[in-house]
Amino acid sequence: MMICLPNGTVVHHINANYFLDITSMKPEDIENHVFSFSSTFEDPSTATYMQFLKEGLRRGLPLLQP
Fold this sequence. Notes:
Elements: E1 2-4, E2 10-13, H1 16-24, H2 44-64
Helix pairs in contact: 1-2
């Protein structure tokens, strides 16, 4: 999965296999908490995807400033 700017610049990406692996693990088994599970969502896939999108926005917004 990739988050790109309109000009094609990739600001964030995650390998689909890694995404599937990380969402199939128990939260306490995850060493890298970049994609940690949120208590807002019960589904680990949804929580991880939301974290992915938030990180993409965090990385991409400074590039859109004039």
